[in-house]
Amino acid sequence: MVADAQPAPSERPPATSVGPIGWMRSNLFNSVPNTILTIVAVWVLVELLPPFIDWAIFRAIWSAPEGRVCKDAGGACWAFVTEKHRFMLFGTYPFEQHWRPLAAMLLFVALILLTCNRNYWKPWLGLAWALGLPVVGILMWGGLFGLSYVETSFWGGLPLTLFLAAFGMVFAFPLGILLALGRRSNMPAIKAICVAYIELIRGVPLISLLFMASVMLPLFLPSGVTIDKLLRAQVAIILFTAAYIAEVVRGGLQAIPKGQYEAADALGLSYWGKTRLIILPQALRMVIPPLVNTFIGMFKDTSLVTIIGLFDLLNATKTAMADANWRGFAVEAYLSISAVYFVFCYFMSKYSQRLEDDLDRATKR
Amino acid sequence: MTANAARDQAPPARKLSLNDPIVRGIFYQILVMGAVIALGWYLLHNTLENLSRMKIASGFGFMSRESGFEIGETLIEYSPASSYGRAILVGLLNTIRIAVIGIILATLLGTIIGIARLSSNWLIAKIASVYVEVIRNVPLLLQLVFWYSLITETMPGPRQAYQPIPNVFVSNRGIKFPLPVESPVFDFMAVAFLVGFVATILVWNWGKKRQAATGQTLPIGRIGLGLIIGLPLLVYLLGGAPTALDVPEMKGFNFVGGGAISPEYSALMIGLVTYTAGFTAEIVRGGILAVPKGQWEAAGALGLRRGPTLRLIVLPQALRVIVPPMTSQFLNLTKNSSLAVAVGYPDVVSILNTTMNQTGQAIEGIALIMAVYLTCSLSISAFMNWYNKRVALVER
Q1: What is the DSSP string of B104-144?
Q2: Number of folded domains in chain B?
């Protein structure tokens, strides 16, 4: 009889401490101020979100022959984006040739995505870039294989934004490293030049450099020599970003213990051997997060070329809005390209977090 | 043998060789300096040649010529008959106005959002982190033009203006609000405010000395409030409390009278403040997280209440982490205010841009832009370095 006695079944925890109710009690209503905050936040969301969703989805017009149809509906006019997306994405590139920038862009993005995976950092990747970049160039410029020639002044939209950002990074990075090394150099003249350059560039807004590139650079060159406007903007972006990268890299260089330098010297390494094999691999790993932040900032800053009249994603969109049939849909247009910018920047920041974790795992035990 | 010994003792003759690090260093430096100077000379030479070929007179003589363009918003008197120099001064003041107010607002908003991200309230923390992610991942220029078109396209015209408070009109021409009619009393109030401010600082210093000597604290918050707000208020009441208001009125197609905040200014301010706040929020969050929890607990064990703990223990330690990156955000805001040119707010860059287009003085224009921003950047960083030194850890 005694052996038959069952232990009393354990009681379920009180309903108020587990499940959704328990979660809400501990995360939303755990104190009086928090309860008030939650109520206010919910009220604000209820006031804002349903009207926004109603505007953006339920009353939205997705396709329409002209803008007036949208005006009557009172919702978001995504029809504008449907109608103009090709101009927004590719700018003034000849309309029937749009497949070319699209293909070039896809190839370019594919190459970048491949490069993002560190397992693929093998010789064939270098070969892929060496083959891929000329293909991208041929697709964009044309003039070969029966493709018509398209001047850079007709390039525009998302490909332009991507190229400005990608080439900006590729060239600014080594320049930035050189500047950072120069700033840490013990040769006074070189140090002075690097410090002056970095501080001067960081002290002025990018827009002034872009103005300089568009109005002043022609004055600097001997008469008869002209440089393409796109290239001038690209140079300004590179020179600007390099100064910021230099400061980021300098942070990493300063964080390397002095013993590393001395040990490398003791091994008899030359300055460049020491820098390449001992110092930079450690310093660059340390500064990955701020470096990616600089790159994200630069990707966003490419939108400034709008101001000097290049047709990047933003300017192409602004130009698309000038159509008299489609007046007054700026909010929709800007929201959609914001989404494009967001996707790219968000991807970059998530990638940097993953890279950081990967590299941390190698050093943390 | 002796000859051998002598040879051993004599130091090897220094040969001028590239293998000698000192010689090599000097050689490289001369090389780089030479290259930089040659490049500079080449550019200068080309520029002078181009200028003389295009017959552009250089120099700052254009500054005293009549500008001939209108400026929408001016803090000082200006008309198209004023000189270019005065126009540039107007732009400079507009830039400073945006930068100073923007820095204050962005710091406040950023601090609130940074603390909200750390809130134990799930909803508030989520809203704050979505805000930060979205704002930081969209270009500022895009946000500026977005706000500008939101204001000019979705707000009603002046005739159908909203009136959230009587006599305050919100329309696509901006916000119009009543202003007190000018009176000398207000000048005296400004003086009283300054006097109160200085007096507060003096009392504060005296209070600190007294606390160090006797241990008695002074209710400096209340005294300061009384001096800074009370003095001007007293002057206002003594001056007969003028209540006449200059109310904006609809005349023709627009409002006349009263004060105004233009759509350009609003768009630029909203854009700059919300964008920079996204970055300052992360800095504040990092700073607070950098103070170990033990500091709170130790302060509690000493018997300090929550307010003094925050003010005396946590904040001084968090500020050490916060101040340097915050400085660069302030600098960024100031430099980003140059994007005003995209929404048509007359800041110094947009006015110099107009000036360059009208006079063709590109070099002088760009040089002025750079000089203005370099001065701003250097003075902000000098101030923040001074402040950083004050809050920094005092080491041996």
Answers
A1: HHHHHHHHHHHHHHT-S-HHHHHHHHHHHHHHHTS-HHHHH
A2: 2
Q: Which chain B positions have a beta carbon within 8 Å of A28's beta carbon?
A: 121-123
Closest by CA to B275, choosing from A297, A85, A278, A8, is: A297
Minimum-distance CB partner of A34 among B121, B370, B373: B121
Residues of A in contact with B36 (CB under 8 A): 193
Residues in Cβ contact with A99 at an 8 Å cutoff, skipping those fewer than 6 apart: none
Partner residue facing B127 (CB), from A41, A296, A328? A41
Q: Residues B98, B271: contact at Cβ < 8 Å?
A: no
Q: Which CATH number fits domain A150-314: 1.10.10.10, 3.90.550.10, 1.10.3720.10, 3.60.21.10?
A: 1.10.3720.10
Global pTM reads 0.83
Q: How many Cα atoms occupy the beta-carbon half-sphere of A308 within 13 Å?
A: 24
Q: Chain A partners of B51 at a C-beta cutoff of 8 Å?
A: 219
Q: Is B198 on the interface with A (CB under 8 A)?
A: no
Rounded average pLDDT per 10-residue block, chain B, 396 residues: 54 67 83 90 85 74 76 78 84 89 92 86 88 91 90 78 76 76 79 88 87 80 83 82 72 70 88 93 88 89 85 83 84 89 87 84 84 85 77 64
Domain range spanning residue B23? 18-55
Question: CA B368 to CA B364: how far, in whole Å?
Answer: 6
Name A275's Cβ contacts closer than 8 Å, sequence gap at least 6: A181
Residue B2 is encoded by which pair of tokens?
A: 């002796």
Give the domain ranges of chain A: 19-58, 150-314
Interface probe for A, chosen from B51, B345, B370 (most Cβ of A below 10 Å), is B370
Report whether B140 contacts A207 (CB < 8 A): no
Which bin fits B205, alpha (ψ -120 to 50), beta or left (φ > 0)?
Answer: alpha
Is some CB atom of chain B closer than 8 A to the CB atom of A52? no
Q: Backbone phi, then psi, for A187, in 5-degree steps? A: -90, 115
DSSP secondary structure code for residue A221 in this structure: S
Nearest to A90 by CA among A299, A300, A315: A315
This model of the complex carries an ipTM of 0.85
Tell whether B334 is covered by a domain.
yes
Residue A30 to residue B120, Cβ atoms within 8 A: yes
CATH code of the domain covering residue B95: 1.10.3720.10
What pLDDT shows up at residue A241? 92
Structure tokens belonging to residue A259: 């013993």
User: Which 154-193 residues of chain B touch chain A by CB within 8 A?
Assistant: 154
Q: Any idea what DSSP says for residue B62?
A: G
